[in-house]
Design a protein that fits this description.
With 123 residues, the chain is α/β, with parallel strands linked by helices. Helices cover 47% and strands 22% of the residues. It has a 5-stranded parallel β-sheet, sandwiched between helices. Helix 1 (13-25) crosses helix 5 (109-122) and helix 2 runs parallel beside helix 3 (63-73).
Length: 123
């Protein structure tokens, strides 16, 4: 996979580094970094990424609220929800707003890239 634009949304700089390093090795272009959901919504409109990694728990606006806002305007957006919590309620809420891909933290860089590649192949 190459020339795929990825937006990374997480309040942890370490997560940004792990994902960005793996993305570059796999030929992805990281087109935007956001540290909260509010930034994610603004940057999505500006950069129109092919795929988004979205943390659930962030300040200002959480990942579920940001995803809901993005998907309401861009229903074909591809979002991978990341969470340290394997909470069924969160997964159910995410599914209800149109997110079907989830990954639990912690993860290895290549694990997230394998998941993103599989998501993109199915679209």
């Amino acid at each position: 996979m190459s020339n795929i634009k990825l937006m990374i949304v997480d309040d942890s700089p370490a997560i940004h580094m792990i994902i960005e390093k793996a993305a570059k090795v796999n030929g992805y272009e990281v087109c935007a970094h956001a540290k909260n959901g509010e930034e994610a919504v603004k940057l999505y409109k500006l950069t129109m990424p092919d795929v988004v990694t979205m943390d659930v728990t962030m300040p200002i606006k959480d990942g579920l609220a940001a995803s809901k806002e993005i998907l309401s305007e861009y229903p074909s957006a591809i979002i991978l929800m990341l969470s340290a919590m394997g909470d069924d309620e969160i997964v159910d809420e995410a599914k209800s707003i149109g997110i079907s891909h989830f990954m639990k933290k912690p993860f290895k860089g290549q694990e997230i890239m394998d998941t993103l590649n599989n998501m993109l192949l199915k679209e």
